[in-house]
Amino acid sequence: MNVLWKRGSATVPELVETITKKRDLAYTTVLTLVQRLYARGLLEREAEGRGFRYWPTRTRDELLADWSDELIDRLLGDFGDVAVARLDERLRDVAPAARQRLRCKEETMKARADAVFAALVFISGCAAGAVGAAIAALGAGGLAGVGAVLAGWVSACVLFVLETRRIPVLVLLVTVIGTATLTSLAWTLAKTFVDQRRLARLRESARQEVWDGHAVWLLPSTRAAAFCAGLTRPQIYLTDGLVSTLEPEEIRAVVRHEAAHADAYVPLKALVARLFARTFFWLPALRDLESSYTLTAELAADEAAIRATSKQAVAAALTRVLDASVPAVGFANLADARINKLLDPGVAPPRILSAPKLALSLLGLAGMAALAVRSPQIGGSEQMHLDAMTSAALLHRLLWERLLFVTALVTAGVLLAQRRHSAS
């Protein structure tokens, strides 16, 4: 059964090949065992070639639960009150130990998530320091001058394109990377602001209740969704569709899962991880670290929910809840990997980094640090010429283009605001 649970399905020859790597069993012995399991309803099969392909009808946890119930029924039927008394004494000793094991698994996963987050912050800090040092070495005047030339590129002005020859390659490289990094940072912050506004509008229609000792916001939606949101004061959100879909124990598992996120400030950490990964896009390892942090945080919250309820409740809720389409840490995030972990607790922990991306990121950091150490500068004559070009750009073509662009942007914003106001 362990082989079938791990593989999903197998033929008898495949089972024999796998089992005989560890134990010496004859083909007929394996065939007899498989046929008996099929006769008991533990396996299902379909014809394949000259034989059959078999797969389990129940998960490992479901089968163990059934066997446990049968064993308890036999004990109570044969020994009555004596069995009850002895079971009570043993459970008093076993329950604390089991809870301690679950707590250790939860703390281990939390520590792993915190370590991944710390690595992401450290690498991002190094990148920010290197970019800042390189830009500071270039100076405000040099940066403005190079920016004017690059703006001329965008406006397709031949004169500015030709002026690129006067700028040292290192200066151009620093300017391009610095400008792209700051632009990505501004875009991510703007998107975060919009997401928080969306969340505020969602909360206006929600009502607050207390579930399992935790304050929960219930949203009037038919979608079955649950998530934790809020940066400084994380809150738990459930939809009416979720409450009507899940059993009480499954709802309790969802609440405990999201409460674990709130206690660890996962929404804030997830935002920081996303902000760094998007800002320093030229360090691909940050994307891996962001994904690894999200998964390990979800697995840690799953362990907390299992400790408060059961593995069956968490798995059942996870298969029914849809991913939340809001800027938040949703209960159904990375559902496939988490379900695999629930079905097979012995599965290896997720890989944090890929070697090629780590190598590229280290090269990127080393290159930016080298640029900062080299302190790229623009010579005096080049600087004077770039200043003149900047002035010409502001007084000539670029000024009018920017004015037209700003006017169009303001007009579009006013029209959009009027449309939203009339719709409300």
Contiguous low-pLDDT stretches (5 residues minimum) are 323-328
- Chain-averaged pLDDT: 76
Total count of domains: 3
Helix amount, in percent? over 70%
> Roughly what fraction of the amino acids lie in strands?
5-15%
The shape is globular
The total of helices stands at: 17
Describe the SSE topology.
Layout: H1 2-7, E1 10-11, H2 12-19, H3 27-39, E2 43-48, E3 51-56, H4 60-79, H5 81-138, H6 140-154, H7 158-163, H8 169-204, E4 207-211, E5 214-219, E6 226-229, E7 235-239, H9 240-245, H10 248-263, H11 266-279, H12 285-308, H13 311-320, E8 329-330, H14 335-343, H15 355-374, H16 380-395, H17 397-423
Parallel strand pairs: 5-7
Antiparallel strand pairs: 1-3, 2-3, 4-5, 6-7, 6-8
Describe this structure as you would to a colleague:
With 424 residues, this protein is α+β, with helices and mostly antiparallel strands. The chain folds into three domains: 2-57, Winged helix-like DNA-binding domain superfamily/Winged helix DNA-binding domain (Arc Repressor Mutant, subunit A), CATH 1.10.10.10; 63-96; 102-372, no CATH class. It is 72% helix and 8% strand. Helix 4 packs antiparallel against helix 5.
Summarize the structure.
By secondary structure, the chain is α+β, with helices and mostly antiparallel strands. The chain has three domains: 2-57, Winged helix-like DNA-binding domain superfamily/Winged helix DNA-binding domain (Arc Repressor Mutant, subunit A); 63-96; 102-372, no CATH class.
Keywords:
424 residues; alpha+beta; Arc Repressor Mutant, subunit A; 3-stranded antiparallel beta sheet; 17 helices; 8% strand; globular
